[in-house]
From TrEMBL:
The gene is cydC. PROSITE patterns: ABC_TM1F (PS50929), ABC_TRANSPORTER_1 (PS00211), ABC_TRANSPORTER_2 (PS50893). GO terms for molecular function: ABC-type oligopeptide transporter activity; ATP binding; ATP hydrolysis activity. It is a multi-pass membrane protein. GO terms for biological process: cell redox homeostasis; glutathione transmembrane transport. InterPro entries: AAA+_ATPase, ABC1_TM_dom, ABC1_TM_sf, ABC_CydC/D, ABC_transporter-like_ATP-bd, ABC_transporter-like_CS, P-loop_NTPase, Type_1_exporter. This is Thiol reductant ABC exporter subunit CydC.
């Protein structure tokens, strides 16, 4: 039950609606029992008396109880569903607030399909918490206890039979099937997560599967996952139906015992026969309401697992955001013996890196693929926390800075840049909501996209743009940001060399006094950089100005020779 603690607290926030739902649920249950009781009493009374006054009064009571039951049931549904929808809203907000500080590092731990299944499916499953888990046992217990006290006035033995029936149908049978459901539900959730993950990957990789003629094999795999999930669902459905049948049988058995014991007491003269039909009808009425408890085990286990899966996603420790302010002048960057290892990896991505990037300097970080260049950039962005060592920007430790305020002072272009469905204008306004059309058109012209209209359509993820156009549009967004610290990760890797040089020229002219950190595998045009850093296997193996490094004929010189031999 500890997994559902957060969901319970969010539900109890709406204590007014929850209390009203329970109150009206109790009234509906009691009115239903009273309706059946008065019906039984009326049948017996009509057989024993000819006084029309009593029969008319009892008939009026039947109508009153029927109307009260209907109105109470409506009010119960109204308040319980309103509380549920509000709880779901609060749950989504709470989950997002916990999830957002973990992004994008969360994608290193979970596959996108599995994460989507948790965010959508598991949150939706928790809508049943109030309606199927928390609420029914409370209402049924109150209705049963009230009815048992009423019944004990006529016969303590019958009241005890109803009490035993209550314990069996509300506690014992659901507990047994909850234990059985726990074993099945784990398999169902695992199968659903596998299916969701594979389906997402199938859609993402459809084009590549088509090109490499692996579509049929992937379809077969997906069909196998679907069949496995369907089989697990069938088992779950069978278990749920079995629980309903057993609970209904126990409820019917309890009513049968009420009838049998009542008939015995009437024969022995210990119970007035006038009340026998009434007591039997009461038992039928209250045991008829135990149907929600038959599905309680399935919903309880489903909610418990859903809450546990959501907690698992957001249970990672989050580094507390600092509140230090960055100075308004140009920012310098210092790293001292910084190391980082990705989760569940043995090899360090960054190991013992120390460097200083002076304000207004232009630094290129080069090296082979997998050398740690992009990881170093994510450390500077405070997306990944360093395992050891210190990083400071503008004289302030990175850990003491609020990430939001830090990113506001940066112009960032990553290897993978997301573009939203909309227009060129809407995607540029992400960087600067106050930008005018003239400023946006000027930014497009600086990255050689002057032919683009601001109203040009952009498909989801920029699918209608080429790789080079995406990179240039991302640079245009960074230009509109207008800050003095540039962090660029392979910004022109998909652009031809002539266009790339023109873009760099525009950036350096615009930001003469800005600080540039450029990660690049292209070694051409680095003569204008103040400092070149060569990385290999997570370490800095060489650093210095271009001319000095060429004279040393070290790692950078060898990389240049390899590049010349390839493009000669």
């Amino acid at each position: 039950m500890t997994e559902l603690k957060q969901t319970l607290l969010l539900t109890l926030r709406e204590k007014r609606d929850v209390a009203l739902a329970i109150f009206f649920g109790f009234l509906a249950g009691i009115a239903g029992a009273a309706l059946m009781a008065s019906s039984g009493y009326l049948i017996s009374k009509a057989a024993l008396t000819s006084q029309m006054t009593i029969l008319i009064v009892m008939g009026a009571c039947l109508k009153l109880f029927g109307l009260a039951s209907a109105l109470s049931r409506y009010a119960e549904r109204l308040f319980s569903h309103r509380a549920t929808f509000t709880m779901l809203s609060n749950l989504r907000v709470s989950f997002f607030e916990k999830l957002s500080p973990l992004a994008p590092g969360i994608f290193q731990k979970y596959r996108s399909g599995d994460l989507l299944a948790r965010i959508v499916g598991d949150v939706e499953n928790l809508q049943n918490f109030l309606l199927r888990v928390f609420y029914p046992p409370v209402v049924l217990a109150i209705v049963f206890i009230s009815t048992i006290f009423f019944t004990s006035y006529f016969s303590v033995a019958i009241a005890m039979v109803m009490l035993i029936g209550m314990l069996l149908t509300i506690v014992a049978v659901p507990a047994v099937f909850a234990w059985r459901q726990r074993r099945i539900d784990s398999a169902v959730r695992a199968s659903r997560a596998e299916l969701s993950t594979e389906a997402t990957e199938f859609l993402y990789g459809f084009r590549d599967l088509k090109i490499y003629q692996q579509l049929d094999r992937k379809k077969q795999d997906l069909t196998a996952f679907s069949e496995r999930y369907g089989e697990q669902q069938r088992k779950e459905g069978f278990e749920e139906n079995l629980g309903q049948s057993v609970n209904a049988f126990v409820a019917l058995l309890a009513s049968f015992f009420v009838l049998g014991i009542g008939a015995y007491f009437v024969a022995e003269g210990q119970l007035d026969g006038l009340y026998l039909a009434m007591l039997v009808m009461i038992s039928l009425a209250i045991f008829e309401n135990v149907a929600p408890m038959a599905v309680f085990p399935a919903h309880f286990e489903e909610n418990r697992k859903a809450a546990a899966r959501l907690d698992q996603v957001v249970s990672e420790p989050v580094q507390a955001a600092g509140d230090s302010e960055l100075p308004l002048n140009a920012l310098d960057i210092k790293l001292e013996n910084v190391s980082y290892t990705y989760p569940e990896e043995e090899r360090r991505a960054i190991e013992g890196v120390s460097l200083r990037l002076a304000p207004g300097s232009k630094t290129a970080i080069v090296g082979p693929s997998g050398s740690g260049k992009s990881t170093l950039l994510q450390l500077l962005l405070n997306i990944l926390p360093a395992d050891s060592g210190t990083i400071s920007i503008g004289g302030e430790p990175l850990a003491a800075l609020d990430p939001e305020k830090l990113w506001q002072r940066m112009n960032v272009v990553l290897q993978e840049n997301h573009f939203f469905f909309g227009t060129i204008r809407s995607n540029l306004l992400i960087a600067n909501e106050a930008a005018t059309d003239e400023e946006m058109e000027a930014a497009l012209a600086k990255v050689q996209l002057g032919a683009f209209s601001l109203s040009s359509k952009v498909n989801e993820k920029g699918e209608n743009l080429s790789g080079g156009e995406k990179q240039r549009l991302a640079i245009a967004r960074a230009i509109l940001r207008g800050e003095s610290l540039w962090l660029l990760d392979e910004p022109v890797s998909s652009v031809d060399s002539v266009t790339a040089k023109a873009i760099y020229r525009q950036l350096f002219e615009q930001g003469k006094d800005d600080t540039f950190v450029i990660i690049s595998h292209d070694l051409t045009g680095l003569e204008q950089m103040d400092q070149i850093i060569v990385m290999e296997r997570g370490r800095i193996v060489e650093a210095g100005p271009y001319e000095e490094m060429m004279e040393k004929q070290g790692h950078f010189f060898k990389l240049k020779q390899i590049e010349k031999s390839i493009f000669a």
